[in-house]
Amino acid sequence: MSGIEIRKVTANTGAQVFGVDLAKPLDEETATALRDALNTHKALVFSDVHLDDEGQQAFARHFGELTTAHPTVPAVDGAPNVLPVDSEGGRAANHWHTDVTFVLNPPQASTLRSLTIPPYGGETLIANSAAAYRDLPEPLRRLADDLWAEHTNDYDYAVPEETLDEEQAARRAQFTSIKFRTAHPVVRVHPLTGERGLFIGGFAQRIVGLSTGESRKLLDLLQSYVTRPENLLRHRWSENQLVLFDNRITQHYAVDNYDGLPRRLHRVTVAGDVPVGMEGKESYSIQGDASHYTPVAA
């Protein structure tokens, strides 16, 4: 671990890591230091990274077993654990979300590696949902503690269905080819740190027990605390970078501000546990079997 340096980027979210060569196997001391830094800073940025898909997967495995690329979207050819995040494939995910929360046990962590970067724009925003929870006024916090939300992949997360062209409609049909609905606690307790975070984002479509309209108003109110500027890291990509973030206690947003120029990242995600709420109750599946994507630990 000699020479490793962790340098905060903002007060609440993100740190740069120096002195670690991700192309080499990490010794346990270094791996532990990175896990601890991730728990503290929620997102870690590595620069001057020279990895291929195999190397990215090897690094991610230091944090746990991998998921396959996605429950419904195809992987990179020959790399079933690697998801292409490609502007040309219509995957500018310009909505706030936590990765794959529509399944029972979403990834615990995600890695993004830059391949093709536009000359301007294309930033990734990462929000600290634990800071958001701490920001809640006490009456809102007490309310959120008792709420559960239904997450699903079957909604118009990008554009309304009636405005889709043929290619966009085909992508949406693929994304929803297996329909998932899962109930998660609105306040999730982090299994390692014990922190409480708002576990909502774009796939959270309804509060259990409330109407759609009531749910939308309440979710928008809570979400406004997640996306406060002081809780955000705005990461401007450079070539040969890798960002690791804790998917259990962050949200992220890919800014679509690069005029349709080529932008390609590769994503590898680490399998996670079933979320647990304030009273120790676990999330539960309503519809859809994601065992092909990420098995649930017994």
Verbal overview:
- The chain has 298 residues and is an alpha+beta fold.
- Helix content is 21%, strand content 25%.
- The protein contains six helices and 16 strands.
- The chain has helices at residues 28-41, 53-60, 129-135, 138-145, 166-175, 212-226; strands spanning 5-8, 15-18, 43-46, 83-86, 109-116, 124-128, 148-152, 181-185, 187-189, 196-198, 204-207, 232-235, 242-246, 250-254, 264-270, 284-287.
- The strands form four sheets. The protein has a seven-stranded mixed sheet with strand order 1-2-3-13-5-15-4, covered by helices on one side.
- Helix 3 (129-135) crosses helix 6.
- It is globular and about 50 Å long.
- The protein starts with a strand and ends in an 11-residue tail after the last strand.
Strand runs, count:
16
Low-confidence segments, ≥5 residues, pLDDT <50? none
Overall spatial form: globular
Overall pLDDT: 94
Cα-atom radius of gyration: 18 Å
Q: How would you spell out the order of helices and strands? A: EEHEHEEEHHEHEEEEHEEEEE
Order of strands, widest sheet: 1-2-3-13-5-15-4
Distinct helical segment count: 6
Beta-strand percentage range: 15-25%
Strand and helix map with partners:
Blueprint: E1 5-8, E2 15-18, H1 28-41, E3 43-46, H2 53-60, E4 83-86, E5 109-116, E6 124-128, H3 129-135, H4 138-145, E7 148-152, H5 166-175, E8 181-185, E9 187-189, E10 196-198, E11 204-207, H6 212-226, E12 232-235, E13 242-246, E14 250-254, E15 264-270, E16 284-287
Parallel strand pairs: 2-3
Antiparallel strand pairs: 1-2, 3-13, 4-15, 5-13, 5-15, 6-12, 6-14, 7-8, 7-11, 8-16, 9-10
